[in-house]
Design brief:
It is found in: Cell membrane. It comes from Xenopus laevis (African clawed frog). With about 350 residues, this protein is mainly α. The protein contains 11 helices and 2 strands; from the N terminus they run H-H-H-H-H-H-E-E-H-H-H-H-H.
């Protein structure tokens, strides 16, 4: 295969064909995506409810968190289509337009989340390390503009997916796949494919990772240098937030992005494939929609406060229900004892009355 020439026809490699027929894949992926949807939908609805209606003032970081939460909610809402696809043994039944939409939303969620988390880390760095100088850059309108720019950048890099029919008919398996077999014609030549994959890895994963790590390291160093009587608590929260962000990057995004790079290089230049490993790693990316609400908890004081209020109210309601249930049970038990005593008394009276009647006779 030359550097500028692509195969004349799109044919799935052996690794992809094995994945399409893998009995474990059609069990693991539906279960994983179902769990993510069941947790991610209520979790992000709850997060949006707090961020939009119970967090004041609405700062630039809150706007970024709202954007991230909406993205996670949309992803979780469309995951049932992926579940059905894998339950049908990797056979897509919803048409090519919905396949393209689900695919683009999946990758848009991943890369917009990475960029948004990077911006949240930059915003926190400016607020902690340069609070006086950075005031004008942390305004709400700049946060809104940043969200718009993120989506422009994400849709720009994903435009090849958006304009391509992502379905493919594997005739000898009698299956219509969705995304699992990419058409070579999606990009004009081999170098364009290489530039596409490398750009995704470097600009949409590696740079956000490096910037985020540096920002949180500088935040922690600043807090350690200027610690006061309230410092310990703030330092702990910042460390927890940094660890949470690193957990999201390492657990959710690192496996799929590294494996995609390895798979793409081998597929393009050495005719080898690691698609099964990549397919499994994509389930880890979707986990970010479940973990992101924990980022909001550590990043926003109002979010923590409201979440604790809701949790305390729930516990109070549970305890109240238990107390009420115990009271009702006690009342019923007392009434039962009273009725039983009454029955004994009445029976005893009747018995004595019968005896008196017998003696009179």
């Amino acid at each position: 295969m030359g550097l500028l020439h692509l195969p004349n026809e799109t044919e799935p490699d052996n690794e992809t064909l094995q994945m399409l027929e893998n009995n474990y894949i059609v069990v693991i992926l539906p279960v994983a995506y179902s769990i993510v949807a069941l947790i991610g939908i209520p979790g992000n609805l709850f997060s949006l409810w707090i961020l939009m209606f119970h967090t004041r003032p609405v700062t630039s970081s809150i706007i970024l968190m709202i954007s991230l939460s909406i993205t996670d909610l949309v992803l979780a809402a469309f995951l049932p289509f992926q579940v059905i696809y894998h339950i049908y043994r990797n056979h897509w039944i919803f048409g090519r337009h919905l396949c393209t939409l689900v695919t683009v939303l999946y990758y848009a969620n991943m890369y917009s989340s990475l960029l948004t988390i990077m911006l949240i880390s930059i915003e926190r760095y400016l607020g902690v390390v340069h609070p006086m100088k950075s005031g004008m850059w942390r305004r709400k309108r700049y946060a809104v503009a940043a969200v718009i720019i993120i989506w422009i950048l994400v849709m720009f890099i994903l435009y090849p997916l958006l304009k391509t029919d992502m379905t493919y008919n594997v005739k000898h398996l009698n299956k219509n796949t969705c995304f699992d077999v990419l058409k070579w014609t999606m990009l004009p030549n081999l170098m364009a494919w290489a530039a596409f994959i490398i750009s995704l890895f470097v600009f949409y994963f590696l740079i956000p990772l490096i910037v985020t790590v540096i920002c949180y390291l500088l935040i922690i160093l600043k807090l350690l240098q200027t610690s006061n009587r309230y410092g310990n608590r703030q330092e702990k929260r910042s460390i927890h937030l940094a660890l949470m962000v690193l957990l999201v990057f390492i657990t959710c995004f690192a496996p799929s992005n590294f494996i995609l790079l390895i798979h793409a290089i081998n597929r393009l230049f050495y005719n080898k494939s690691y698609y099964q490993a990549y397919k499994l790693s994509l389930t880890m990316s979707s986990l970010s929609s479940c973990l992101d609400p924990f980022l909001y908890y550590f990043a926003s004081k109002d979010f923590r406060k409201k979440a604790k209020e809701v949790w305390a109210k729930k516990l109070k309601q549970t305890e109240s229900c238990e107390t009420r249930r115990s009271s009702i049970f006690s009342a019923l038990s007392g009434r039962s004892m009273t009725i039983s005593s009454g029955e004994v008394f009445e029976n005893g009276s009747s018995h004595r009355s019968c005896k008196r009647q017998e003696s009179d006779v």
